[in-house]
């Protein structure tokens, strides 16, 4: 059913001079999707995400959110319409605590940003929501520490929590496990697995354990173009996909 499609790209192209970073990429994300985008280095994943968020204007093609053409919209307008991406660590406020950052995100969503300076207790609803997010992202024990002092994995959890605090209809997860030490990875896998069912998620990730534990459908991008899409089982068994990855992982 077409009304089930929450995010769609139609033949998205991005050229940087002579390089075609994305080459007629058409994707559809259905409500509640758990979709992974994989591909070797330089495949065009970051460019595609940037086209979705509005950071990189496409050379050709369209992006539709809930059936609406958002190709020309600025990033903040897309966020307001329900398309959120995980914040990057270098965008976190190091001098705020996770509780303060989440309270800012929740209150900005509730259109109460101008009241952000009020003590937490003054708005019970915001406080309750922040507490739930702290629990959901396993940040309770770190709620009052400065973000810059948190273990790396906890900062990555906060990135995801801040995006979820916006209650998006579509969540773009950009390499949530990248750089996370082995001892902290399980937290990422578990919290990503427990994301709200009604949020449609597009995951970009190199960590195949996370990809295959999370995704119910996948797209493989190679040289800017879609090589194939399908279930994780079909993708894992596809000799073309294996060839691409064996080439990349050779010598590891
Ligand atoms: N701003 C830019 N200017 C010129 N070329 C670019 C730019 N951004 C990306 N490219 C090129 O576009 C191609 C796709 O890059 P992109 O970063 O999107 O791939 P990727 O799949 O995200 O790779 P990785 O997994 O290594 O991050 C590459 O050849 C890259 O060099």
Keywords:
252 residues, alpha/beta, Rossmann fold, 9 helices, globular, binds adenosine-5'-triphosphate, ABC transporter ATP-binding protein, cell membrane, membrane, P-loop_NTPase
Give a quick summary of the entry.
The chain has 9 helices and 10 strands. With 252 residues, the protein is an alpha/beta fold. The chain has a single domain, classed as 3-Layer(aba) Sandwich (Rossmann fold).
What is the percent of helical residues? 25-40%
Q: What is the first-to-last residue Cα distance?
A: 43 Å
Could you describe the largest sheet, including whether it forms a barrel?
6 strands, mixed
CATH C-level category: Alpha Beta
Number of domains: 1
The unreliable regions are none
Determine the CATH superfamily: P-loop containing nucleotide triphosphate hydrolases
Bound molecules: adenosine-5'-triphosphate
Beta-strand segment tally: 10
Q: Output the strand order for the largest sheet.
A: 6-7-8-3-9-10
Output mean pLDDT. Answer: 89
Radius of gyration: 19 Å
CATH topology group: Rossmann fold
Structural class call reads alpha/beta
Measured by DSSP, the beta-strand proportion falls in 15-25%
Overall shape: globular
CATH-scheme architecture? 3-Layer(aba) Sandwich
